Amino acid sequence: MLPRTPYRNSSAHLTRDERLQCQTLRLAGHTHKYIANLLNLTERQVGYVIASEQVTPKKRPGRPRILTDAQVDELEEYVQSSRATR
User: Fold this and answer.
1) Do you know which SUPFAM superfamilies this protein is assigned to (predicted)?
2) pLDDT band at 45 (very low <50, low <70, confident <90, very high)
């Protein structure tokens, strides 16, 4: 058994590579506990990844942008114009 190492930040989401490593190690016959110790994850994170069977994590929802790209470009152009016109 591997020595216990501190967990990484528990609030951080797993990357695609970490999820793929979990699933590959599980297919190789390793236990959740072994995988968690090897990758510095919690057993719950490993169990969730294996149960979800998705390698690509879901896109995190966020607040929608208020300005469109065209509006941002227009504002940048205005700010970069001469000081007298601002």
Assistant:
1) Homeodomain-like
2) very high
